[in-house]
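hey so i finally got around to running the thing on that chain from the lab meeting. sorry it took forever, my laptop kept dying and i had to restart like 3 times. anyway pasting the input first so we r on the same page abt which one it is
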Amino acid sequence: MPMNGSGTWPNARWLFAALLVAWPALAPAQASIGELRRQATRAELEQAVKAAEAASLRAPDEKTRARLRADAVALRSRLANGDFAPGDRILLMVEGDSVLSDTFTVRSDRKLPLADVAEVSLQGVLDSELEPFLTQELLKYLKRVTLTATPLVRISLLGFPTSNFYTVPVDRSITDVIVAAGGWGPTAAHDKAVVRRAGTVIMDAKATAEAVRLGKTVGDMSLRDGDELFVPDRSAAGFNWQTAVTVVSTITGLFFVLRYGLNRGGP
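ok and heres what got predicted. didnt touch it at all, straight out
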């Protein structure tokens, strides 16, 4: 990595930009490379781990080094544990089998209880590996298996005409989800929309706007159960001078009515 004119390493922004250029297919919606798209393959995640660890050794400050190390740890944890947590739901469609074609919920032990079939452990299984993995598991019981397996995510849309919880497939475009919620309302500050997780913003307005513009999927945005897409009301997004003038005028008029009306009623 080149040094700048003073003989020191470039700043952190340059470092992250170089890292994302080196692996353009892995660039995440979030600022941190620890939040790669949900459909990332095992090879992509392993490559991202190496990238984060290598970059942490050349980072210009301890804060950046710590962040990169944390990204690497998070990615390694994902590789070990897989993408499916207790409570996650999977829509399974098995050709010619109406019993196995249903929505199933991952249990607390990360096992998926399938009808008429022994439970299947999803420990260590990535989203990108789900369909071939379940196909191999079901071939233990069936002669031929043709299936689709789609993880479902329950997200909350706030500030929309139809604000509510929506359960959507991870391959659903975020623009389709917004349409389902009634689209942007007439006063929605859509350029200030953000994604929050447990009250913390995980995608700022710029990243969210880019995801919407590109029509990224819920999985591309790495959204999880409980995440929120929040759009503020434009009239409440900043100080409204028109409203302020109206209020001041009303108060001023009331002041004169009270003052001079009371004086006229006096002796």
